[in-house]
Amino acid sequence: MKTSILLLVLLLVMGCKKDQPTPLAFDDFSFVAPSSWKKFEAQGYDSKVGGITDGKDTLRYDMGMYSYSFTKETSATHHRRESVQNGYKTLTVWPKKTGQGLMGLYIKVDDFRKLSIYGRSKNEDEVLEILASVKIL
User: Fold this and answer.
1) Predicted confidence band at 14 (pLDDT cuts at 50, 70, 90)?
2) What pLDDT does residue 88 have?
3) Distance CA 113, CA 57 (A)
4) Predicted local confidence at residue 17, as pLDDT
5) Which of 19, 44, 99, 105 has its CA 20 to 30 A from that of 125?
6) Torsion over CA: 83, 108, 100, 40 (sign)
7) Rounded mean pLDDT of 11-27?
8) Contact present, 85 and 133 (Cβ < 8 Å)
């Protein structure tokens, strides 16, 4: 009986274990995401492109001269937060209605390198944590 209770408690604790954060590094930047997120790379023409996915949601990145700066995500439809991350000015956007719009981060690294990371998700808190962890290398 005691063994059964101990086994049940152990299974409950293991089942509640939170997904541990994992650093993911690309050529020019890195970020931290839960271990269920895996990185992928893609072929770009004038920039470096790729992303991360957990199988349900995907965040894509574009590092180049013409990366998207979230001009269509206005204050009428999106929250827009300007801040400084890792010494760089950033713009973070996310929809005012959860799950109904693009989420993303924009950083102008220099005149030739701009980084945008973007995607859609109903798990906005997790995505905003990932975006807040971005570091330019």
Assistant:
1) very low
2) 96
3) 26
4) 52
5) 44
6) negative
7) 70
8) no
